[in-house]
Amino acid sequence: METNTHSHDFDDIRPLNDDEVSAAIDELIAAPGFRNAVNYIMPKVDWEAFTQRMRQCRTKEEFKSTFSYDAVMTIARHTTFSLTISGRSRLPENTPCTFISNHRDIVLDAAFLNVLLYDIGHGLTQVAIGDNLLIHPWIKLLVRINNSFIVKRDIPVRRVLDASRTLSAYIHHTIRHTRESVWIAQREGRAKDSNDFTQNAVLKMLNMGGTEDILTNLMALNIVPVAISYEFDPCDYLKAQEFQLKRDHPDFVKSKRDDLLSMETGILQNKGRVHFTIASPVNPALKALDRKMEKNELYSAIAAVIDREIYAHYRFYPCNYVAYDMLYQTLRFRSNYDRRDKKLFETYLRQQLDKILIPNKDEAFLRTKILEMYSNPLKNHLEHKP
After folding, report:
1. Which of 49, 105, 221, 284 has the greatest number of beta carbons closer than 10 A?
2. How crowded is the C-beta side of 230, counted as CA atoms within 13 Å?
3. What's the rounded Cα separation, in Å, for the pair 208 and 221?
4. What sign does the CA torsion over 292, 293, 298, 304 have?
């Protein structure tokens, strides 16, 4: 039995339709903030030629496959040593999927995944993006042209349940009827310490759009976990800083300016090697679960299935092994790096710590937090080996 939904039910969260693209492009071009962003990423751009090419796009697909693809690959060329993907043989053929991944970068996790999927012929996915990041109207316009749908977060508590139902119904509608894949992070916000785990709340939301039991509803979404591995996280020092600010001031809340800085830093600074691994679709494992389990226990079991796939398919770099040995004061992974690797990471760590300029700077605490960010994926991998 399918949910009886129509696209107009989702007008306030859906991406733009193709017949809305031309007007949106004109509005985007007229926004000073958009022009500033383009000039920042591509300082040598010929603005007149650039906007003329934009206006030639008549569909989202044309816009994404030319401008968005080029913009993301330009960022990759300038800020990564390599951008790679593996596990394509695990992708179900001709089947729209719900990609659920760990979350490192506010903008680039989904953007990088999209261009990598496009390159291997899967097609671009729809992307879930929180409205807390849509700081300026032109940003909201840009993400909607790029086939993103909106996750409402800045809403009164009494409306959260309705918003979750609508979001879930939209995802089910997209998989079943539009037959496009979607991407959503395994949790609300990034795991600041890289201790990745799937939140039950995300799975509960995904279940709401179905009309059957929990397992049937989630299996209809064809969930495929994706493990994301950045060699360096340019926002690591900002995340460490936030940990101390929250420790020292329990009521601390990031400002919109903080979010903009995180987006800008994540996009424009060095990430080293970046790798995405498509893990195994979870439907066979979900099918084997006991449907009679208590609901919360069942959600936890489903989350564990997704997490195990992500943990098993991380890619590790010398910095992960060095950070683990430094944090736990061992030589456990000494064979996975040499003295040069260790010296390079120590220099990097020093440089990142030096960027933190806050009152009562707790150097030891901040250092530990950054080491945790680089060692936690390895720790989870080791602790959840089959």
Report:
1. 221
2. 24
3. 12
4. negative
